[in-house]
Amino acid sequence: MGSLFDLLTGQTDDTPMAPGAAGRRNMLLLIQLRWLAVFGQALTIAIVHWGYGITLPLGWLLLAPAALVVLNLVSLPLVKRRKAITDGEIFTALCIDAGALTWLLYFSGGATNPFSALFVMQIVLAAVLLRRRYVWAFVLGTSAILAALTLFHQPLLLPDGADERLGLLVQGSLINFMLIAVLLAAFVSRTIRNVRARDAWMAESKQQAAEQEHIVRMGLLASGAAHELGTPLASLSVILGDWRHIPAIAEDDDLATDVIQMQAEVDRCKSIVTNILMAAGAARGQAPRVMRLSQFLAEVVQEWRERGQGQMKVQVLGPSPHDPHIIADEAFRQVLSALIDNASEADAGSLSLNAVADSEQIILSFLDDGPGIPQDILSKLGQPYQSTKGRAGAGLGLFLLVNTMRTLGGEVVASNRREGGASVQLRLPTEALAPK
């Protein structure tokens, strides 16, 4: 039975999900349970009417399972198209099921029918699925219905001696107990799984909120530092420009070369400061650059090579099957560069950047031949301050990477390769970088 539930919901694990998504899964489980109820009702009516020879008002009784079949056929495609289901909608569905059971009991002995205990199962389901106010409303409603069925119902006419000969009440109670036990074991266990998944989603949301707050503080600090550094860097650039024209320095090749290198490093610092301000929204004078993804990746790799921070070989493969135009997002550029730095600092000899792109998604895979990522870092990927000295490529950079990708609507998947080395895969929707 578990496979039927899992096949219908399309999810068998405890993947964190929002409360509305958990409600959707619970509604799908209710629909599956309703199919079982329809089958059980039809089978019970047939056994009692033709097997035990007890005359039943078949026309009236069969209206209930027929109505539930129509309800399922209409609601199932609607629920599958929606992303979230509210408690009010689940409450309404349970009320409809309770109404169908009430209809069946009214024409088959009312509260004296042993299957009236099925109301207990519905109350348990309400207690598991719904908030307190809905639960108590359902309890009061079903209690009132059962009380009314003790007074208003059509008696079940049994053949003479049928109860003593067949033990109908005992048999009915036994079947009812088995039915309730099986349905509760199958349904409630999966409902609890949904509740756990919802709780995991809420815990993950709180963690993300804390990380976003940390990012904001870091952004404010970086933006303030960038503003403060702008003036001294500009002064240094002017001073170095003056030095280049001093005869004593211009005539000394070594000094002239040193000044040129210093000027280049100052210019690079100024560029970094500008990029920080642009990413923080403090500098918008320059129009965003639009280029092919292949050109963007080539620039990232070329800039890393020009910095000369390592001897690692970097190879770019792709993108394929498409090479879309993208906005050269500076924050994205920095995290890509940081990934290359991580591999180099981890003593990798080579790194392969495999790019796959189409109209829907961009996938960038960084594969190196280094020592891999420590397991304790992998288990806490994206959390700040998880690095230790001597563990290259496993610190704040991964935290910034994960949150940058999250901002772009993407995700990061990191693992260690069987043949050795680390694998970091970035997946993001193409429209996240598409020119507007």
In short:
This protein has 436 residues and is of the alpha+beta class. It has helices at 2-9, 19-51, 58-61, 63-81, 87-106, 118-129, 132-151, 162-166, 168-243, 247-250, 253-279, 293-307, 330-345, 375-378, 396-407; strands at residues 290-292, 313-321, 325-327, 350-357, 361-368, 411-416, 422-429.
Number of helices: 15
Please state how the strands of the largest beta sheet are arranged side by side: 2-4-5-7-6
Mean of pLDDT: 76
Identify the overall geometry. Answer: rod-shaped
Uncertain runs: 1-19, 281-286, 388-394
Global Rg: 34 Å
Order of helices and strands: HHHHHHHHHHHEHEEHEEHHEE
The profile of the biggest β sheet is:
5 strands, mixed
Helix content: 55-70%
Structural class: alpha+beta
Q: Find the count of extended strands (DSSP E, 2+ residues).
A: 7
Portion of residues in beta strands equals: 5-15%
Distance between the termini: 49 Å
Question: Could you explain how this protein is built, in words?
Answer:
- The structure is a single chain.
- The protein is of the alpha+beta class.
- The chain is 63% helix and 10% strand.
- The chain has 15 helices and seven strands.
- The strands form two sheets. The chain has a five-stranded mixed beta sheet with strand order 2-4-5-7-6, with helices on one face. Strands 1-3 form a two-stranded antiparallel sheet.
- A hairpin with a 5-residue loop joins β6 (411-416) and β7 (422-429).
- The radius of gyration is 34 Å and the shape is rod-shaped.
- The relative contact order is 0.07.
